[in-house]
Design brief:
single chain, about 350 residues, 2 domains, two-stranded antiparallel sheet, 12 helices, about 70% helix, extended, disordered C terminus
Length: about 350
């Protein structure tokens, strides 16, 4: 725990000193990796698949809010899907518009949570995210997380859809739209994952806001348990196609990440809790004050003093004092001299 607190202080000092350069750099890296991942998964439109285009757009995203990055990625995704099928692009556009209505209304500053959700789904461990998001973000964070999962499954469905439309039985536009809708409705893995992550975020947020000791610890334990139970029920009862081994690993990693968030953002000492009561003209106030754990700065520098130099300094001080005494004696003698006029 001490190591994490020291690491947090060092990171904060480094960030405060170089944040002008770090923030655009992080935005650029996230955007560039996201565009590359999108091109790898559904790079059907060759005109925008060039990495140079992704690089240029990422540079622009580095200096703009996260919402612009979400919009740019959505446009790239729709363009790639349009290269496969106009029907698929129209259906994806409807999903994106609903996402924009909810996202920009309730969680406009949480765009990177959506991007991170898609990335974690891509590497098959999305269970790492909900506990940490519930602790560090607001309750509305379940919106970008849910849409992140949905966008990931839209991308995953694109490959299967490209194969399906080559079949003469689904060549008609109405049949293609029906096929896409059935693919989403019958995708139990997507439904289970959205339900597990959304409920986990809400449970963690509600419990951590309670005014009880160790509320963050209880929130981590409850969120981990709720997520695990929902995932297990979905796998066993609904026959969701989710790798149970990766699910367990992701859940445990999520609990570990939640503990790190607790130490970094909510390190308090409940043993020194104080209860304060005061009043004004209209209310009585009962306040519970829990002090934060702070590290004492142990970077103490001891300067070694050379004895020889100290002696020389003392000698100079003695000489100055002797000169001052001599000057004072001469001045006294001058005052004792009396002059007589003839």
């Amino acid at each position: 725990m001490v190591f994490l607190l020291e690491l947090k202080d060092n990171i904060n000092r480094f960030y405060n000193k170089h944040n002008v350069y770090l923030v655009p750099a992080f935005k650029f890296i996230i955007a560039f990796l996201s565009f590359l991942m999108l091109n790898m998964q559904i790079g059907y439109m060759s005109q925008i698949k060039n990495p140079l285009i992704a690089l240029l757009v990422s540079v622009v995203c580095a200096f703009l809010p996260s919402g612009f990055t979400v919009v740019a990625l959505s446009l790239f995704m729709l363009a790639h899907l349009y290269a496969v099928s106009a029907e698929f692009a129209v259906l994806a556009l409807c999903i994106v518009l609903v996402m924009y209505l909810l996202y920009f209304r309730f969680a406009p500053k949480q765009g990177y949570i959506l991007i991170l959700t898609v990335f974690l789904c891509w590497i098959k461990i999305p269970e790492v995210l909900p506990v940490a998001v519930g602790l560090g973000a607001g309750i509305t964070a379940f919106i970008p997380v849910s849409f992140g999962v949905l966008i990931y499954y839209v991308i995953q469905t694109a490959s299967a859809y490209e194969t399906a439309i080559t079949n003469p039985s689904v060549s008609d536009s109405i049949q293609q739209i029906s096929y896409i809708a059935e693919s989403f409705i019958n995708n139990k893995s997507c439904i289970v994952l959205i339900a597990a992550m959304a409920v986990t975020i809400i449970v963690v947020y509600v419990i951590k806001k309670m005014s009880v000791d160790n509320s963050w610890t209880y929130a981590i334990a409850a969120g981990t348990a709720v997520q695990f139970i929902i995932m297990i029920v979905g796998i066993l009862a609904l026959d969701a196609k989710i790798n149970i081994v990766l699910m367990i690993v992701g859940t445990l990693l999520g609990a570990a990440v939640g503990y790190i968030c607790k130490v970094v953002f909510f390190s308090v000492d409940y043993k020194r809790t104080e209860f304060v009561q005061y009043e004004d003209d209209e209310y009585y106030y009962y306040v519970k004050a829990v002090p934060k754990i702070s590290l004492v700065n142990q970077d103490v520098r001891v300067k070694q003093i050379n004895a020889r130099k100290t002696r020389k300094t003392d000698d100079l001080s003695d000489i100055r004092r002797a000169v001052d005494k001599h000057a004072a004696a001469l001045e006294q003698e001058d005052e004792d001299i009396t002059f007589f006029d003839k």
